[in-house]
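Quarterly update from the structural biology core.
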Amino acid sequence: MKRRDLLLATILVLAAACTATAAGKKTAIRRKHEQLQPQAAGGSSSCDVYRGSWVVDESYPLYDAASCPFVRKEFDCRRMGRPDTMYLKYRWHPNPPCSLPRFDGVKLLNMWRGKKVMFVGDSLVVNQYESLLCMLHAAAPGARTNQSWASGENPSITVRFEDYGVTLVYFLSHYLVDLANDTAGRTVLKLDGMDEGRAWLGADVLVFGSWRWWWRKSWDYIQDGNTVVQDMDRTQAFTKGLQTWARWVDANLAQTSTRVFFQGYSPNHLDSQEWGAPPGKTCIGETQPLNNAAAYHGQPNPQDAIVRRTLAGMAKPVHLLDITFMSELRKDGHTTKYNGDSLGRDCTHWCVAGVPDTWNTVLYLAGNS
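Predicted structure, tokenized:
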């Protein structure tokens, strides 16, 4: 387990170091890509499963994290001493006439039988990955599993559900483009480099996500074609990098049956004024979600519009997991001081079990559409 802890420590991003702005409200940009077809009462018309509210459901959570061998201590809030439990009891309820089906892990394992599912991105993608592993484990507790880790520039975690032949992989990629060392040992963020993409080929399902690390300068230089600079506007850099990723997806996956998803912006809750509370506070101590859209006052995040615009221009259909709004309402769902960090300031990552379970329920729905 020591090797696992070292790898996970490398992957995890502490929220105290995150400098990204508050969560973005959804920007109305039409996309030609896949749309969710959620269940609608009394008819077959589609609706927006991402608009709704959180309701108490005493049958929740879907699993006990204490029985899940795949969740790290940094996400396991109950293990790390969180005393309240109501944050575990909320279920996402889309606005009528929509309904969100209950997650069926055995059905999903059978649907993915013999397939490889890969999550690629930063620690918020890990949040969703480990949540899904716990959901599947709880649905098939007797299934034989095998877990392995790989180190290097892009560490990865692989869990295989042997009885179903399903392999789930997490691949660390903060930027979705190459971050490499040059001959002088300097770290270069290559906005047009996609060598790491070779590791993603062969996956039947790909879930990507990136944003937070673009606001952390973990490079010595940025290379854009033949231009090399020490830094540049981060939103511009993100746009260029995402366009490179999109070209790679179109070039390598457009003619394949691989399903591609992109994790939408996951908001932090570092500014209490965003939910109408006095200034100077964060998510620490919050125990209840916001009850409606009007209660959230955060400003739009540029990542949202950039991602939507990029996906709209792609040849390969990519489904946006539009988790922003539902997550904005969950100021109570973060790990805060229950993450093994004495500073206790993490208002970026989410408790598992918790909010990421709903992200995966939507992924489950999208995977069935």
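The first strand starts at residue 39 and ends at 40.
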